[in-house]
Amino acid sequence: MAPNTEKEYRMSEVKDHNKNDDCWLVIGNANTGGPKVYDVTSYLDDHPGGAEVMLDVGGQNADEFFEDIGHSNDAREELKKYQIGVLKLSKEEIEQMEAEAAKAKAQSEKGGNSMLIMVLVVIIAVALGYYKTQM
């Protein structure tokens, strides 16, 4: 019998599952169908990155970590096997997650502008250096 993937869990329930013999993760966001709860205990030894990587985020929202790694479609399909439910969020938790996402987006956009400015400064410096050597 397949586990009830629609069972709702609160973060307070998930946080206690952070050990080698009992490891749950929350992965998912608004772009991927919402946060889901996964019991990855039986997968720890099979994880290509090692058990320690998953244990470091056990009992936590590991979505950002999961997405930053750039997991393959095969990994995403494998993950589905371990879903045991969905994360139930209070209105305050939803607002906090939205605020954190907006802050992260603003920081990444700001970082992109800084990089552009740096590249332009380097190009101008090289052009000026070249111009002065040609005089």
Topology:
Blueprint: E1 8-9, H1 11-14, E2 18-19, E3 22-27, E4 36-39, H2 51-56, H3 63-69, H4 73-80, E5 83-87, H5 91-133
Parallel strand pairs: 1-5
Antiparallel strand pairs: 2-3, 3-4, 4-5
Organism: Trieres chinensis
Keywords: Heme, Iron, Membrane, Metal-binding, Transmembrane, Transmembrane helix
Subcellular location: Membrane
Keywords:
135 residues; alpha+beta; Flavocytochrome B2, Chain A, domain 1; 2 domains; five-stranded mixed β-sheet; 5 helices; elongated; metal ion binding; transmembrane helix; heme; membrane; Cytochrome b5 heme-binding domain-containing protein
What's the SSE pattern?
EHEEEHHHEH
- In total, how many domains does the architecture comprise? 2
* CATH level-4 homologous superfamily of the largest domain: Cytochrome b5-like heme/steroid binding domain
How far apart are the termini?
81 Å
CATH fold name of the largest domain, please?
Flavocytochrome B2, Chain A, domain 1
Number of strands: 5
Q: Mean pLDDT, as a whole number?
A: 85
The shape is: elongated
What's the level 1 CATH class of the largest domain? Alpha Beta
> What is the radius of gyration?
21 Å
Structure annotation, total helices: 5
Q: List the uncertain runs.
A: none
Q: What percent of the residues sit in helical stretches (DSSP H or I)?
A: 40-55%
- Strand order, sheet with most strands: 1-5-4-3-2
Q: What fraction of the residues are assigned to beta strands by DSSP?
A: 5-15%
Family: Belongs to the cytochrome b5 family.
Domain Cytochrome b5 heme-binding: 6-88
GO molecular function: heme binding; metal ion binding
Protein name: Cytochrome b5 heme-binding domain-containing protein
